[in-house]
Design a protein that fits this description.
278 residues, alpha/beta, Nucleotidyltransferase, domain 5, 2 domains, 5-stranded mixed β-sheet, two-stranded antiparallel ribbon, 9 helices
Length: 278
């Protein structure tokens, strides 16, 4: 009889997460999925109340427990910065990094800065096959319920725009937008961690939180995988400029000696050079 660990190596690899996809990964944090989706809601400025458009959400989900480990909300289109920020949020909340990260073929996932971050913490990335419809957006399939159960119940949601003929001036979502980015992020976090995390998942028969904690008890805490949320980690997840440059600062320290002939002092100059990348 083969042990579960031996059989696991022959199990199929699941590139996408749907509600009916079987649990995969032999423990929490073994396989995680990272992707972006644009939420169906118009947001306004917190200062001028001007309509700013629809935000992008980045989700990091655990394949074993289906738990949403971290999320990031921004107006910027998908980029390596969103990837860095969601990984920062993950370490801030859990103090851990995935062992294997499943991503799509977006160029943000092949960024040198993002790949360096993954390599630093021994995280392997796998790219989902492209050009095949069944390997579409993970977030759209797995977190579509976030739109239907949460976003579509908020003022300014864009659900009606899916049928442009029915959109009139009176019901235009841009005229009803009241949510700001900060307030939406706060309530989205509450929905993810206080509601979704405690709802039974059809593929598990458990809530994501229960499946996660049972997996940790069964396979161990693995303290060697813990990552401190310190200054070093925060620096590694900082974004860079469009064109990185090196600033050379020369610090000179002058030491005056005794005055010699002619009334001038003997001066010794000590030069210290520091390099800063920005």
């Amino acid at each position: 009889m083969r042990s579960p660990c031996a059989a696991y190596s022959n199990e199929p690899f699941y590139w996408e997460l749907e509600f009916t996809t079987p649990r995969h990964g032999n423990r929490p944090w073994a396989i995680c999925h990272l992707d972006h989706t644009q939420l169906d809601i118009e947001l306004v400025s917190s200062k001028t109340q001007a309509v700013l458009g629809r935000p992008w959400a980045t989700f990091l989900s655990d394949a074993y427990s289906r738990r949403i480990l971290a999320l990031y909300l921004t107006f910027d289109p998908p980029s390596y910065r969103s990837c860095m920020m969601v990984m920062r949020d993950c370490v801030r909340r859990h103090g851990r990094f995935p062992q294997c990260l499943v991503v799509d073929g977006g160029k943000e996932f092949s960024s040198v800065y993002f790949e360096r971050l993954l390599a630093m913490y021994e995280c392997t990335s796998k790219t989902r096959p492209g050009g095949k419809p069944r390997f579409g957006s993970v977030c759209e399939r797995l977190f579509g319920t976030a739109n239907t159960m949460f976003i579509h119940n908020l003022a300014g949601n864009t659900q009606i725009t899916k049928n442009p003929r029915s959109v009139t001036t009176a019901v235009n979502p841009r005229r009803h937008a009241v949510w700001t980015l900060g307030s939406l992020y706060e309530h989205l976090c509450n929905w993810v961690y206080e509601f979704y995390d405690h709802q039974e998942h059809p593929a598990l028969g458990l809530t994501p939180q229960e499946a996660y904690h049972q997996g940790i008890v069964k396979t161990g805490l693995r303290p060697n995988r813990l990552i401190p949320y310190d200054e070093t980690f925060r620096i590694l997840t900082l974004p860079t400029t469009s064109f990185p440059r090196v600033l050379v600062v020369v610090l000179s320290k002058y030491i005056s000696g005794n005055k010699s002939s002619g009334g001038y002092g003997d001066t010794q100059a000590h030069r210290h050079t520091r390099h800063y990348t920005y």
